[in-house]
Design brief:
By secondary structure, the chain is of the alpha/beta class. The protein is 42% helix and 15% strand. A hairpin with an 8-residue loop joins strand 1 and strand 2.
Length: 203
């Protein structure tokens, strides 16, 4: 599989080192929100990349390894209690900001998936709606973040058996909702999300 990418936004096209930022995990009832920042080298084979949601797990793993071996990469995450305290939008923005700051080099420009730019970041930036399908470096960040979060949820499944975290990654699948009703909440569930809040109020 290969694809072509449209031209970068004009402001970014003048920058030498461009970071792509994306986050994964806004929708789940459990687990962290995870963000990645990626600066791709000029010779990276971007035709191999795509939005992480369009890629099968094995292909995501392969591409994540390729990205890590050739690009500047940083990750950041916030757990469920912080998501409850901040709300998911603010937690997502803070996580992306932390990933950007954690890069081994400061980019000249950042392209951020979504419609908001985190405050206080160390470079100029632009938000790109559906950026993971429109900008290669954002797609790379989406792949890194998705692979990292899936691994975290697979580990969570070991600590909290019976919920199926390794299959639905904490999203509100029928099996997850059924497990919540039967087993109750875990420390990684987001109490500010309605299905979890309903369980908490019954206890």
């Amino acid at each position: 599989m290969s694809r072509d990418w449209p031209p970068l936004p004009p402001a970014a096209s003048r920058a030498q080192h461009i970071a792509g930022l994306d986050e994964v995990g806004r929708g789940p009832l459990a687990g962290p929100v995870v963000a990645a920042a990626v600066i791709l080298p000029p010779d990276f084979p971007v035709h191999l990349l795509d939005d992480s949601k369009k890629l099968p797990p094995a292909r995501r793993q392969e591409l994540a390894s390729l990205i890590r071996s050739h690009a500047a990469v940083a990750l950041a995450s916030l757990p469920a209690p912080d998501i409850d305290r901040l709300n998911i939008l603010q937690a997502s923005l803070l996580t992306m900001k932390r990933a950007l700051i954690a890069l081994p080099m400061t980019p000249d420009f950042a392209l951020i998936d979504g419609n908001k730019v985190p405050k206080g970041i160390p470079c100029s930036a632009e938000a790109v709606v559906k950026g993971d399908a429109r900008v290669a470096c954002i797609a790379a960040a989406s792949i890194i973040a998705k692979v990292a979060r899936d691994a975290m949820m697979a580990e969570a499944a070991v600590h909290y058996p019976g919920y199926g975290f390794e299959r639905h990654m904490g999203y509100p699948a029928k099996a997850h909702l059924a497990a919540l009703s039967k087993l109750g909440l875990t420390p990684i569930h987001r109490l500010s999300y309605a299905p979890c809040r309903a369980i908490a109020e019954r206890c």
